[in-house]
Amino acid sequence: MKFKANGVRLQYNESRKVEIVINTDENVHIEDLKEIIAKGKELNVEIKQFRRKRSMDSNAYMWVLLSKMADVLKTTKDELYLRILSRYGVFTHVVVKENVVERVKSEWKTVRELGKVIINGQEGVQMQCFFGSHDYNSKEMSVLIEGIVSECKELGIETISNRELEIMKNAWGR
Questions:
Q1: What is the tens place of the pLDDT at every residue in 21-44?
Q2: Cα–Cα distances in Å, from 163 out to 83, 160, 166?
């Protein structure tokens, strides 16, 4: 269940346990959640800042710019996309056993091997794994497009004006 909250506060019940009270304007049906708890099970809860999903316009604009850059750089837009992700994209670090390095590479959009590490006496390979932009929120997509726009300008490729870019970012809910 996901919903947008517009207020949160703490209170204590009779047993002196903390209760989190969340305010929302949305119609939230919690009967299924109550049923799970009644069966003695626990819920996994995550609360984080709301961000609008990026618009498809931002995705389309990214691919237009990558196509223009690919023409100038004599490469494909897909190859360029992977390089751009490694410069401006969202990533995580993982440590894996050496025998699964290639498998991990095949599961991620782009990966950098950072070298061997020893953790708790076990040897592994540290990797920087980049997520594909299809999962980006508006802020992450904004950073990616700002990087692409910057590189386009360095290559002399025409982009939308800074004002138009700001209007687009505001539409993304940045």
A1: 888 887 877 887 888 889 998 888
A2: 27, 8, 5
Q: Please state, in angstroms and rounded to a whole number, the distance separating the CA atoms of residues 167 and 170.
A: 5
- Angle (nearest 5°) at CA 137 between 134 and 141: 75
Each residue of 108-129: pLDDT tens digit? 889 999 999 999 999 999 999 9
Q: Where are the domains of the chain?
A: 1-50, 56-171
- 150's CB contacts (< 8 A; 6+ apart) are none
User: Tokens for 135?
Assistant: 């999962």
Q: Which of 116, 110, 114 is closest to 98 using CA atoms? A: 116
pTM of the model: 0.62
